Automatic annotation (TrEMBL):
Pfam families: GDPD. The lineage of its organism: Bacteria, Pseudomonadati, Bacteroidota, Cytophagia, Cytophagales. This is Glycerophosphodiester phosphodiesterase family protein. It comes from the Bacteria. InterPro entries: GP_PDE_dom, PLC-like_Pdiesterase_TIM-brl. Residues 10-281 form the GP-PDE domain.
C-alpha cells in the first residue's frame, strides 16, 4: 500500500488518561490529558463489592502503584491480596494509587490520587471542557472482562455491562462513547442491547484480525490491535474487507512508531504520552 505524502493526523487517545505523565486512571491523569488536548480519554472499568463502576485497570490493587487501605505497602504475592470486587467503594477510595510512581514510567509525576468512580471521571471531564472552550471530548471505556474472572473478580457479563451502561447513559455521553473489550461476550451484549453504541474489539498480538472479527459475529465500530501487528499489508486487507471499520492501535509510545502508523493511515493512536504525539503535529 503506498504511503500518502501528506497523511492526515489520526485521533489522539490518551491511554489511562496519560499514564506516562500522571498516575494512571486517576482524575489528575484525565484532567492533564484534557489540558494537553487529547481527542479521546481512554480508561478501564471494574466493579466493586457494592456494584459501583470503578476506574481501574486491574480488578485488584496493583502492588507496584497502590497502597493498601491503611497506607501500607502491598507485598507481592502469587494471587492478588486486595480484590476490588470484594471491597466496598468506600474502602477502595482510601487506597492511594498516585504516590508510588509506576516503575516503567520515569516521567510520571507522583501525587496523591485514588481510583475514581466512572461517574466522577465523566462529570469532571465534562465540567473541564465547558469553561475551557474545548469541543466535546469522546470517551473510550474498556470493560475489563475475562471469562476466567466471572464471579471471582467481576460479575457475569450481563450485570457487568448493565452497570457500565447505566453510568454512560446517566451522564448522557453515549453518543460520544465507545465500549472497548478483549472479551467478545461483552461486545455482543452491547450490540444486542444498545446497538447504537460504538464498540471496539481489542486484540492481543497473537490474535488474527479477520478471524477475530468473524468470531465476534458482527463488525464493530473499531478494531484495536496491538500496534506491533499493524503493517501495510494488514491495513490494506482490513480496508478491503471492512471499508468502514476504524483502526485504533494500542499502546504507541515512541514517536518513530507514531510516524509509521500515521503514514499507514490509522484512524487513531492510543498512547501513554499524548505530549509526544502533539509534538509531531506541531513540527
Amino acid at each position: 500500500m503506498p504511503v500518502s505524502p501528506h497523511p492526515r493526523f489520526p485521533e489522539l487517545h490518551g491511554h489511562r488518561g496519560c499514564r506516562g505523565l500522571r498516575p494512571e486512571n486517576t482524575l489528575p491523569a484525565f484532567l492533564h490529558a484534557l489540558a494537553l488536548g487529547v481527542d479521546v480519554l481512554e480508561m478501564d472499568v471494574v466493579i466493586s463489592a457494592d456494584h459501583q463502576v470503578v476506574v481501574s485497570h486491574e480488578p485488584w490493587l496493583n502492588p507496584a502503584i497502590c497502597l493498601a487501605p491503611e497506607g501500607q505497602i502491598i507485598e507481592n504475592s502469587p494471587s492478588p491480596r486486595f480484590n476490588l470486587y470484594q471491597m466496598p467503594y468506600t474502602t477502595i477510595r482510601r487506597c492511594d494509587c498516585g504516590l508510588r510512581r509506576h516503575p516503567a514510567f520515569p516521567e510520571q509525576i507522583s501525587e496523591p490520587a485514588y481510583k475514581p468512580l466512572l461517574s466522577e471521571v465523566l462529570a469532571a471531564s465534562e465540567a473541564f471542557i465547558r469553561p475551557a472552550g474545548h469541543s466535546s471530548i469522546r470517551y473510550a471505556i474498556e470493560i475489563k472482562s475475562s471469562p476466567a474472572d466471572d464471579n471471582v473478580f467481576q460479575p457475569a457479563p450481563e450485570e457487568f455491562l448493565s452497570l457500565v451502561l447505566a453510568e454512560i447513559n446517566k451522564a448522557q455521553v453515549a453518543a460520544r462513547t465507545t465500549v472497548l473489550c478483549f472479551d467478545p461476550r461483552i461486545l455482543r451484549l452491547v450490540h444486542q442491547y444498545q446497538p447504537d453504541l460504538a464498540t471496539c474489539l481489542l486484540l492481543e498480538a497473537d490474535q488474527p484480525w479477520d478471524a477475530s472479527i468473524q468470531e465476534l459475529g458482527f463488525v464493530p465500530t473499531t478494531l484495536g490491535p496491538d500496534f506491533t501487528t499493524v503493517t501495510a499489508a494488514a491495513v490494506q486487507e482490513l480496508r478491503s474487507r471492512y471499508p468502514g471499520l476504524r483502526l485504533v492501535p494500542w499502546t504507541v509510545n515512541q514517536p518513530s512508531d507514531m510516524i509509521n502508523l500515521i503514514a499507514l493511515g490509522v484512524d487513531g493512536i492510543t498512547t501513554d504520552y499524548p505530549n509526544h504525539f502533539l509534538t509531531l503535529t506541531t513540527d
